[in-house]
Amino acid sequence: MIKAIVTGAGGRMGGRIISIISQTSGIEVVGAVEKKGHAAVGRDVGEMLGLGKNGVVVEESLSACIPKGDVVIDFSFHEASVEHLMIAAAARKAIVIGTTGFTPEESARINELAPKTRCVLTPNMSVGVNVMFKVLSDVAKILGNDYDIEIIEAHHNQKKDAPSGTAVKMAQLIAQSLGRNLDQDAVYCRKGMIGERTKKEIGIQTVRAGDIVGEHTVIFGGLGERLEFIHRAHSRDNFARGAIRAALWIVGQPDGLYDMQDVLGLKGVG
User: 210-267 pLDDT, tens per residue?
Assistant: First the structure.
C-alpha cells in the first residue's frame, strides 16, 4: 500500500485528490498539509471532506508528517512547492508536483533538488492534455513554418498565474519542434497598429472568467485551411486521477526528474 501525503489539502485540487484516493486501491492518505493559519489546519481531513473521520489531521508543515509517507502530492503555491521538494529530497521521499507559475530561479532550484529524490513535475496531470502535448510536437514538425500558431487558454477567475503552465508547455514543445526561441518569438497580447504578423510568432492569449476549469485551443493557421486542437476539462477529477497515477508510478522509479510523458510511456512513441 502506497502511503501518500497531500499538500494544499484545503484547496479544490487537494480535496479532490484526497477524495479520489479514498476510492482507489493501492494507495491511502496518511498525511495532509495546509499553510499556516488556514482554517483546515488541525481538522480531521476525512471529516472535513465529508468522507468520515479517518484520523488524518491537517498539519501546517510538511516536516510534521513527512516520515509517515512514501510520496507527496503537491498542489500548493510555487514558493511552497519548492520548499516541499526540499523537505521531500532531504527525507528521500518521492514527490509529484502539479503547481505552476515558477520563477526562473525556482525552476533552477527544482532542477538542482529533483535528482536527489524521485520527482514528477508537470503543468498538467491530465492524460488527455499529455497526449495533446505529444500530438502538437509531432504536428508542428510536419507543418513546419508554413502555418501560423496561436494558443488560447481559459481558466477560472481565481487562477493567479498567466498564461497557464499548460499553455506555456505547449508553446515550448512547438517552439522546440520548429527550432524557435520562445523567449524571442512568443507574443502574449496584441493591441493597436501592430503591423503584419511575423512568421515566427507563437501567440499565447489568456482568458479568465467564471468557473472555467481549463480549456486550451491550439490553432495552426495556413492558407485556405486551419487545424485546431482543443482540450476542455469538465472537472478537476481528471487532474486528480492523473496525479494519483503519477504517485503510484514514481515511488518505484530511480532518482530523477520526470514528467507525465514518462508516467504515461509517451516518450519515444510515434
Answer: 999 999 999 999 999 999 999 999 998 999 999 999 999 999 999 999 999 999 998 7
* CATH code for position 198: 3.30.360.10
Active site residues: 155, 159
Residue pair 83/36 in contact (Cβ under 8 Å)? The answer is no
Same-domain pairing of 37 and 171: no
Based on the fold, state whether residues 240 and 220 are members of the same structural domain.
Answer: no
Alpha carbons 184 and 186: distance in angstroms, whole number: 6
In this predicted model, what pLDDT tens digit does every residue of 61-81 receive, in sequence order? 999 999 999 999 999 989 999
Which amino acid does the sequence have at 95? I
pTM attached to this predicted model: 0.84
Q: What is the number of alpha carbons within 13 Å of residue 210 lying toward its C-beta?
A: 5
Cβ(38)–Cβ(63) below 8 Å = no
Cell of 123: 503543468
Amino acid at 211: D
Amino acid found at 116: K
Kind plus residue range of the DSSP H or E element containing 155? strand 148-155
| CB neighbours of residue 57 within 10 Å | 18
Domain annotation covers residue 101: yes
Cell numbers standing for residue 195: 503591423
203/71 Cα distance (integer angstroms): 37
| 240 phi, psi to nearest 5 deg | -65, -45
Per the structure, the complete domain to which residue 220 belongs is given by 127-233
